[in-house]
Amino acid sequence: MRHDGVVPSESPSRTRTLPSDRFLNRELSWLDFNARVLELAEDEGLPLLERVKFLAIFASNLDEFFMVRIAGLKRRQTTGLTVRSADGLTIREQLELVTARTQELVQRHADVFIKDVSPRLEDVGIRIVHWSDLPDEDTRRLREYFRDQVFPVLTPLAVDPAHPFPYISGLSLNLAVSVRDPDTGNPRFARLKVPNNVPRFIPVGPAGTTTFLLLEDLISAHLTQLFPGLDVLDHHLFRVTRNADMEVEEDRDEDLLQALERELARRRFGPAVRLEVTDSMDPQILEVLVSELEISPADVVTVPGPLDLAALMALYDLDRPELKDEPFVPATHPRLSEGETPMSVFATLREGDVLVHHPYDSFATSVQRFIEQAAADPNVLAIKQTLYRTSGDSPIVNALIDAAEAGKQVVVLVEIKARFDEEANITWARSLERAGCHVVYGLVGLKTHCKTALVVRREHGVLRRYCHIGTGNYNPKTARIYEDLGILTADPRVGADLTDLFNTLTGYSRQTNYRMLMVAPHGIRAGLLEKIRREARHAAEGKPAGIRFKLNSLVDERIIDALYEASAAGVPVELFIRGICALRPGVPGMSETIRVRSIVGRFLEHSRVMSFENDGDHEWWIGSSDLMHRNLDRRVEVLLRVCDETARRQLARMFDEAMGPDVRSWQLGGDGGWTRTGEIDYQAQRLAQVGEHAG
Which residues are named in the active-site annotation (predicted)? Predict the structure, then answer.
């Protein structure tokens, strides 16, 4: 891949030199995204428990960032190769910048909780107390709770010549305890794991109370019971993050399921990549931890206050509706019901496509109902579907099982390499197999990330195909909090394309050309580059031109360089990007016509949409692919061309509203800084429109 700054133009006789610093760093851009999440926790205009939720999300996001991205950088660093990022930084330089930025954000995160959110929670009767603050009556009850519910599951582990330093599991809370033998005066070190199968927030007082004691505080108050006959000198909380980015050695001659299960067993023993400690940590104990965990002092993150604030989701789950956003019930798409009566999805699709926009349009009464009706319909002969992530009790999977048991041909591609859902997907795959479904585990070397379903139905002696292609997973739980799009269609061209795609996924077909789809790893980057360059040609010729992308992430350098070329030709480019963006917008002579906006709010903006003005013959595409190397090169992804005029108008209106000048959002500057602007809540505005329609 070229990063020399020379970008080929359409004419071989002309080249244009782009500056070497034209890319923003991917890791720092991700940290900027998590900083936007943190800004929501800091926002005093949000309901209090919504702020608590964003504190928890920030912490959970940061955990995954270290388990995957930083772990990946460290693994590459150990190879000894001089690897530079697209913005020219070595791995060491990136890690140094990440460390500094992380410590800054962690401090902000703790300050928001300790100095702002926690006092406000106390004002509304939700308190987190310390053992020393409790009256005798509460301590007596909690001593009984400790004796009956906590003490039996604790295992203090000594560290001495006869007891090697114990394995510390990833993301577990631990107490490092200093004890002394009163007879010899010799100090000892012990590790005590805070159990993760006991509630972290322990109610203090009668049932229904909203006063809590942290589990580690309760354990700390009873350390003498765990080390009888010894003097407990000190104790400190710490937490380790380990590499969880598995590399499955895929061999065509080995069962992929067995290979993945082997790697899952290894994951828990990945090397440590981060050590979190409280700001009261004893330097000598810290030295022991750094040495035994074989971690660099640079990988130590000091946290002022409680560790693992992802656990705050337990407080968000309290029944305090006055402290949360107004509840929202998704509406059934108007094409899919007559009043309260559900309509046949098949009959509806014979009249035209349906674009569903989740969570505003109900997933349960659209996509889920599509699969459920197909499973129950005696005229349906076959259902083929991809599953990347789904919920614990999945109605989609249950419908597929019902369909197979009813004698339908059911083919399910379960992507068992979906990160952190591997074990759940293996379980689903086996359940589907037991029911008689044909289960495929994905392709060697690729993750199947596309969201596709194909239903084959016999109608008056003729076979007709019905399809769903979406931007989000077949997961009814996340469909209530993730913003996603999907097309339900009976377009025979789309049906033919999905038939070809499933033959590729389940057999040995090498199909690369499709009628209505762009499919990675062979077709999406090339297709988008051609369309971006077409817009540049149109602009240079004075024809209508314009590009609009809605993505989670924009990282691919070839796509970014093509957008820079389009901007130089005068193409207006609007980018609506929730997370990572490596493009620098608004730079004179390079990206003056490019605008980048991020919206982070109640719902996770997750859909991917691409739009091209195309000299007035407007093109719209939706699908599963972000513009990153992994999506374009190492995944099976699908983009669908949207041809239904009503759906195209819906997409245009969505973009117009989201990119409006007064919408509350973050704007990216050419220096890589994000600035919050606007007052109109785009998602709330969309909710109001749904409410008006439902009313």
Answer: 449
User: For 498-562, what is the HEC assignment?
Assistant: HHHHHHHHHCCCCCCCCCCEEEECCCHHHHHHHHHHHHHHHHHCCCCCCEEEEECCECCHHHHHH
The hierarchical CATH code for the domain 128-323 is 3.30.1840.10
Cα dist from 616 to 340, 608, 611, whole Å: 40, 22, 12
* pLDDT for position 268: 65
What CATH number was assigned to the domain covering residues 334-509? 3.30.870.10
Domains 6-11+518-694 and 128-323 are alike in CATH topology: no
Backbone φ and ψ of 62, nearest 5°: -65, -35
Among 287, 291, 163, CA closest to 236: 287
DSSP E strand boundaries for 260-398: 272-278, 300-303, 337-338, 341-342, 354-358, 380-387
Give the pLDDT of residue 487.
Answer: 98
* Residue pointed to by tokens 């159990």: 195
The response to whether 578 counts as a known ligand-binding position is yes
Do 456 and 465 form a contact (C-beta atoms < 8 A)?
A: yes
Burial of 217 (0-12, 13-18, 19+ CB in 10 A): buried
The answer to whether 333 is annotated as binding is no
Predicted local confidence at residue 391, as pLDDT: 67
List per-block mean pLDDT (blocks of 10 residues) for the chain, which spans 695 residues: 45 63 96 98 97 98 94 84 84 94 97 97 96 93 96 89 83 93 86 94 87 97 92 94 70 56 64 94 93 93 95 96 94 88 93 97 97 97 92 86 96 80 79 91 85 97 97 94 98 97 85 92 96 98 98 98 98 98 97 98 97 97 97 95 97 96 96 96 89 56
Pairing between β-strand 635-641 and β-strand 594-598 as defined by DSSP bridges: unpaired
Tell me the residue type at 250: E
**Is-catalytic flag, 163?**
no
Give the pLDDT confidence score for residue 83 in this predicted structure.
Answer: 75
Query: Where do the domains of the chain lie?
Result: 6-11+518-694, 128-323, 334-509
Closest CA to 201 of 366, 315, 58: 315
Is 127 one of the annotated binding-site residues? no
In this prediction, residue 462 carries a pLDDT of 96
Neighbours of 540 (CB within 10 A): 15
Q: Which two tokens stand for residue 650?
A: 């819906």
Residue 130 is labelled as binding a ligand: no
Q: Which of 109, 333, 449, 468 is catalytic?
A: 449
Q: What is the pLDDT of residue 583?
A: 98
Q: Are 55 and 312 in contact (CB under 8 A)?
A: yes
CATH H-level superfamily of 6-11+518-694: Endonuclease Chain A (3.30.870.10)
Residue closest to 450 by CA, chosen among 637, 622, 632: 637
